[in-house]
Design goal:
Elements (H helix, E strand, L loop, with lengths): L1 H14 L3 E7 L11 E7 L3 H14 L3 E4 L5 E3 L4 E7 L7 E4 L2 E4 L5 H10 L2 E2 L11 H7 L2 E2 L2 E2 L4 E7 L5 E5 L17 E8 L1 E2 L2 H18 L19 H7 L6 E2 L2 E2 L9 E2 L5 H19 L8 E3 L11
Parallel strand pairs: 2-5, 3-5, 4-18
Antiparallel strand pairs: 1-2, 6-7, 7-13, 8-14, 9-10, 11-12, 11-13, 15-16, 16-17
This protein binds flavin-adenine dinucleotide.
Length: 312
């Protein structure tokens, strides 16, 4: 099996249309700062490099994972035995035309929100301060304080499963709370947002207010992946975790912080296995106490089986 993978990787190196590095540590590429090695890191910087890369990967039947800023994933200690794709360069570009903003997949959400403010366009203020790329945010339908990235979406250019390039309108995607089901098996190439002309100083003021709230409510001094769980209907994961007496609970370097129970932190070099064990413990205790099964928001990468699964 390993030999087969090695042969295919050798062929990928020969045919790869973009920058490629072998044996790369994934931990520094994530905000949780955990995870083993990627067999290969491929970094396309243009749309054609990305599409050509996907064609080669399909031909060679190599498994791949598309990495954004790594702010919503937990990578296995054994890493990812395939190709991690991380876009850069031109793919991080943002263009403004009137009240429409177009963003490449690698553009940071921070760039999108500040670009909108600079052009006196309102609608994205609630997203300011969420780490991640625009494509990662779309995949998650990221949001905060009553706003979601899909709110002002016009359309998304994607590479579909059959590797054709298509445009999906907002109405083609059944966006829900932290979910965008139709984007699950596609690669986002770019997305467009229609915003509303507004008062620049009022926009900056609202962004500062949101930043301040985030600073007060989130443990930004420690590596984390934001909220571990989705909000259960009519409740908050943090409240249930606190009521279950789990604040301060620790597995190795993985901790439920006392201040923000919904956002686990990596304190003192946690392993992914420790974070996964902590997640299982919390799900299990919360279920036993409240009969609520918390659903994970973070995405496991490189695990052979679901690392968050518990048996009740
Ligand atoms: C301190 C902190 C605070 C946070 N606060 C919030 C918050 O308030 N609200 C919120 O919603 N989230 C929050 N998050 C979670 C996270 O920032 C968001 O989910 C973010 O949108 C993920 O983007 P990313 O680029 O990091 O994606 P990644 O974590 O790298 O990837 C997430 C998923 O997107 C997929 N993906 C990435 N790029 C593409 C692409 N081009 N095409 C197809 N799929 C792609 C990946 O394959 C993966 O499945 C927080 C995280 C941290 C660390």
């Amino acid at each position: 099996m390993k030999q087969l993978l090695d042969t295919r990787v050798d062929e990928l190196i020969a045919r790869c249309p973009c920058k490629l590095t072998t044996a790369v540590q994934i931990a520094p590429l994530t905000t949780f700062r955990v995870g083993g090695m990627a067999r290969v890191l491929a970094e396309p910087s243009t749309e054609s490099e990305l599409v050509n890369l996907l064609v080669v990967l399909r031909d060679l039947e190599l498994p791949y994972f598309y990495l954004g800023l790594g702010s919503n994933i937990l990578v296995s200690d054994h890493g990812f035995k395939g190709v991690v794709i991380r876009s850069r360069g031109e793919l991080g570009r943002i263009e403004v035309s009137g009240s429409i903003i177009k963003a490449g997949p690698a553009a940071r959400l921070l760039m999108l929100t500040t670009c909108a403010a600079r052009h006196s366009l309102t609608g994205l203020e609630q997203l300011s301060g969420i780490p991640g790329t625009v494509a990662g945010a779309l995949f998650m339908n990221a949001g905060a304080y009553g706003g979601e990235i899909s709110d002002h979406l016009v359309d998304v250019r994607i590479v579909s499963r059959d590797l054709s390039i298509q445009v999906m309108k907002k109405s083609d995607i059944a966006f829900g709370y932290r979910s965008a089901p139709e984007l699950r098996d596609v690669i986002v190439l770019s997305s467009r947002y229609e915003l509303i002309p507004g008062d620049r100083s009022a926009i900056y003021k609202e962004m500062r207010r949101v930043w301040q709230l985030r600073r007060e409510k989130q443990p930004i001094a420690f590596p984390s992946a934001g909220s571990i769980f989705k909000r259960p209907p009519g409740d908050y994961a943090g409240r249930l975790i606190e009521e279950a007496g789990l604040k301060g609970h620790r597995v190795g370097g993985a901790v439920v912080p006392t201040a923000h129970a919904g956002i686990f932190i990596n304190d003192r070099g946690a392993q992914a296995s420790e974070i996964a064990e902590l997640i299982r413990k919390v799900r299990s205790d919360v279920y036993r106490k409240f009969a609520v099964m918390l659903e994970n928001e973070i995405i496991p990468v490189g695990f052979d089986v679901d690392p968050f699964q518990i048996h009740v």
